[in-house]
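Re: beginner question about structure tokens

> Can someone show what the tokenized structure looks like for a real chain? I only ever see the sequence side.

Sure, here's an example I had lying around. Input first:
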Amino acid sequence: MSCLREYLARRLEDWELRILPGSYDIVGDIAIIRIPNALRHRAEEIAKAIMEINSHVRTVLNQVSPVSGSFRLRRLEWIMGDKRTVTIHREYGCLFKVDLEKCYFSPRLSYERYRVAELVRPSETVINMFAGVGCFSILIAKRSKADKVYSIDLNPWAIKYAIENIRLNRVEHVVEAILGDAKTIIKERLLETADRVLMPLPEKAYEYLDYAIDALKPNGGMIHYYDFTHAGRNEDPICKVKEKISRKLNKFGIDFKVEFGRIVRTVGPRWFQVVLDVRVNKRIKRADL
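And the corresponding structure tokens:
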């Protein structure tokens, strides 16, 4: 991806270049950029440049709201190209069909999806508590010898596309898409089922952590826990998240070890998305089940 600022250096004024976004996302053949209000008059020029730099891009959309709500959606405005929000994204040999207006999808999690898939061992049962259109789940099915992957999401549109993506990638024998709230699904049918649980929804992971533990087999297993945290200049964001979940796990008397942690991405000034790989060695039953 060539530098957009360099490409537009002779077309925009200096002050416009200074506030021009330094990056944008490409999902399939759709580009998404967040254009500041002060640059809205340049939207078509910016979109044209993106399409010239990326010859496969057929649509450019402007993100006009942050990701928000239970379904993690954002408001998108068409700028140039085909008037659509549906595309097929290719990633590590998988195909993901998605409607960017109705489902959450981030190409910036590509490496994290690959990393987790490579950790899955043969014959594992995996539960993805916040699966979206099925990216983590399908990549696991394609790249590992997992026995079963339960792919749960609350958004009916995400499950619709997850079912389609399961067929597209021919993993019907491994991945099952389930519509519903993960805590309810786990309590009703998936207690003590999983060797590995994924929690790729930082906004809800802490709240649902005890249900992830309930989903693990009695001898324990692995939880991939995601969270957002703010860290000052002298603070380690990974340590902050470790301390946060350690307090909760210790409260429940869980024998655990954080085997790995990394910053997945920066999401704002001194705000970080962090993942921890948490090995739970002994699971306890909660009295309220």
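Each token stands for a local structural state, so reading them left to right follows the chain. The radius of gyration is 20 Å.
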